[in-house]
Amino acid sequence: MLLFQLLNAIDPNLTPAKTKIHLAGYNQVEEPLDVYRRGIEKWEAWQSWQNRRNFEREFVVALIDIPQRPGLWMFAGAYRKAGRERRTGGTDHWYYDLPRMTAFDDIAARVVVLFRRKDRAAYRDAETIADKLVVHELSARTLTLPAFPGYKQLHVSFSQLEALVRAAESSWRTALSAVGGVYVLADSVDGKLYVGSAYGEGGIWGRWSQYLNGHGGNVALRELVGAEKAKRAQTFSFAILETADTSAGRDDLLAREAHWKRVLLSREFGHNAN
């Protein structure tokens, strides 16, 4: 099935001739899928600001690149252009008023589209590619909340963790609440590491949930993120170094934490202050 066959079954007015396709990809700052995972309001604000008049049609269909899955795009919703406004301040930008078409909410973030583009153009008149936009998958769950990958494969960005915690995603919460252990936080800005441990009730899930403020109560990280807090923490990612039973003693886990600090030199060259 082609994407527009599915969309037209919901609203026949949404035709390719009236629609601009937004192929949202990495902009050298952030992945749009991460923005979407932080909340629909943040995604819609991200899309509304354009440096050119990119949405000069009645409708906009948004497709978001899925990292590590070449040629696959997440359907992020359909929008009606209600207006635009030129705004200046350093550089000119266009702000588009794009009300979401709620009739498509049930399939947003669940439909995966196959489209192998041959260039980097991010804005297309829909009729030029409509016959190449193929519905590849219709997921029972939204793609904004990935399934738990297992302890050994886990590597999650701050924005992904934030979305998972706020949604209390069951597979992640169940798995990470069941174990304590030692984890590592990596900062992509400077490459520095922070090693921490989680023990007792709530396990790793409970400890990682505390990082939504950007620092999790750690003195060195609080100083690092400063007033930006969670905004600065968007460059953090988390992984597990080793797991332990939640009944494991605090002293034992602190000893394992100290071991990994020595191995990874996170005191000398990272964000661990002790």
Note down, in words, how this protein is organized.
With 274 residues, this protein is of the alpha+beta class. The chain folds into 2 domains: 3-138, no CATH class; 156-264, GIY-YIG endonuclease (3-Layer(aba) Sandwich). Helices cover 26% and strands 27% of the residues. It is built from 8 helices and 13 strands. The strands form 3 sheets. It has a 6-stranded mixed beta sheet. Strands 10-13-11-12 form a 4-stranded antiparallel beta sheet. A 3-stranded antiparallel beta sheet has the order 2-6-5. The protein is elongated. The termini are far apart.
Throw out a few tags for this protein:
274 residues, alpha+beta, GIY-YIG endonuclease, 2 domains, six-stranded mixed beta sheet, four-stranded antiparallel beta sheet, 8 helices, 26% helix
Low-confidence stretches: none
| Number of helical stretches of at least 4 residues | 8
Strand coverage percent? 25-35%
Q: What characterizes the major β-sheet?
A: 6 strands, mixed
User: What's the number of domains?
Assistant: 2
Question: What is the chain-wise order of helices and strands?
Answer: HEHHEEEEEEEEEHHEEHHEH
| Average predicted local confidence, pLDDT | 91
Shape: elongated
Radius of gyration: 22 Å
Structural class: alpha+beta
Number of strands: 13
How many angstroms separate the termini? 58 Å
Strand neighbour order, sheet with most strands = 8-1-3-4-7-9
Helical residues, percent: 25-40%
Spell out the blueprint of helices and strands:
Elements: H1 3-10, E1 19-24, H2 32-37, H3 40-48, E2 49-50, E3 59-65, E4 72-80, E5 83-87, E6 93-97, E7 111-114, E8 123-125, E9 134-138, E10 156-157, H4 158-167, H5 170-177, E11 179-187, E12 193-198, H6 203-209, H7 219-225, E13 236-245, H8 250-264
Parallel strand pairs: 1-3
Antiparallel strand pairs: 1-8, 2-6, 3-4, 4-7, 5-6, 7-9, 10-13, 11-12, 11-13
Helix pairs in contact: 5-6
